[in-house]
């Protein structure tokens, strides 16, 4: 299987509830490595650029308000089939529909405040990683 990198965010609701540790634990238990990481607060322009594909959605303003409301953990995850594997570990977008044991089931509060982001394709992973990390920051692939 292909060695890949994907982009992950631990969202403000999960950072607030002290769930960084258990969420990273899920990634590591499932064979993904943290290749790069930073704890930061997203600026509004950067967040709007990141979520540009959702600009016309009715929830866009609310999504940007939430994602800039507190610290987030930005990560590059690496491993075999990392993009799809991460989406499986995360669970469905709506925590109410997420499978048992997934991060969104365990730590999500609502469809908006769903604890984590993960890239949905190789093209998204490349774009999203490039928005937040320099190549030299991938130190543990
Ligand atoms: P995913 O994060 O699973 O890839 P999407 O790309 O469809 O999901 O949506 C991006 C983010 O927008 C979601 O993770 C969630 O935080 C928010 N979102 C999606 N749908 C809704 C909704 N109906 N109401 C509020 N927020 C939403
Ligand atoms: Mg998405």
Summary, kept brief:
With 141 residues, the protein is an alpha+beta fold. 39% of the residues lie in helices and 20% in strands.
Task: Describe the overall structure.
- This protein has 141 residues and is α+β, with helices and mostly antiparallel strands.
- Helix content is 39%, strand content 20%.
- The protein has helices at 12-16, 20-29, 44-50, 60-67, 82-90, 103-107, 122-132; strands spanning 3-10, 33-40, 72-80, 116-118.
- It has a four-stranded antiparallel β-sheet, with helices on both faces.
- The longest helix is centred in the last third of the chain and has 11 residues, at 122-132.
- The protein is globular, with a radius of gyration of 14 Å.
- 34% of the residues are buried.
- The model has no long low-confidence stretch (mean pLDDT 98).
- Bound molecules: adenosine-5'-diphosphate (ADP) and magnesium ion.
- Adenosine-5'-diphosphate is lined by residues 54, 59, 63, 93, 111-112, 114, 117, 120.
- Adenosine-5'-diphosphate (ADP) binds next to loops.
């Amino acid at each position: 299987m292909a060695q890949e990198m994907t982009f992950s965010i631990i969202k403000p609701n999960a950072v607030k509830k002290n769930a960084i540790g258990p969420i990273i634990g899920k990634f590591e238990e499932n064979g993904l490595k943290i290749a790069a990481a930073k704890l930061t607060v997203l600026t509004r322009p950067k967040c709007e650029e990141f979520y540009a594909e959702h600009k016309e959605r009715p929830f866009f303003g609310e999504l940007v308000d939430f994602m800039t409301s507190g610290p987030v953990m930005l990560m590059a995850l690496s491993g075999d089939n990392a993009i799809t594997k991460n989406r499986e570990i995360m669970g469905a977008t709506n925590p109410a529909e997420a499978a048992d044991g997934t991060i969104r089931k365990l730590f999500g509060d609502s469809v908006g405040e769903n604890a984590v982001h993960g890239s949905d394709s190789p093209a998204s992973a490349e774009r999203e990683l490039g928005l937040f990390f320099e190549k030299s920051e991938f130190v543990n692939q």
